[in-house]
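Internal tracking record. Fields below are filled automatically when a chain is submitted to the structure queue. Please do not edit lines marked as system-generated. If the sequence contains nonstandard residues, flag them in the REMARKS field before resubmitting.
Queue: standard
Priority: normal
Entity type: single polypeptide chain
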Amino acid sequence: MIRHLTLLLLTMVLSGSLLASELTIGVPMHLKGASTFYISGRIGDMPASDFMVDTGSSYMTINEETLASLKLTEEPLYLRDLTGILANGDQMRVPVYAVSRVQLGETCLLEEVEVAVFPGNTRQILGLSVLLKAAPFVFSTDPPQLQLSNCSLTKTNTGDQTALVAGTDRLLTRR
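SYSTEM-GENERATED OUTPUT FOLLOWS
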């Protein structure tokens, strides 16, 4: 049965009827007081952490502690400084880095993402610099989830097999 499904899926990909932009991945969100939604995500090889979903934020933001940890395992690329306007109207000058990959939820992988770095141990935000890479996207509150497109797919272990792995060019592999 799995072989038949694998063959069908592979045939659809090779025939061009299944494109990456047609794949939609649901990433669960959870509510944390004050009507703010968070998703679980990873930057590079770092452990998963929560990111507040903010469609009004131009950039994904990480804090200086996350940047310092990230520098231990990989080389984020400094791009520029920018002056941003915060929700309270204050201006803040922050550095912007490119990180090699960001994983949202269990399966959505985005590569070469720009992140703004805020001082100290501030809350981390999932903003438009990431969401637009996964566009079109849908923010749903019932059920609370982000529906993302244009993701590469990360490995999902299903017992003795590995299903749907990075990118549509390698849809199924076996151990």
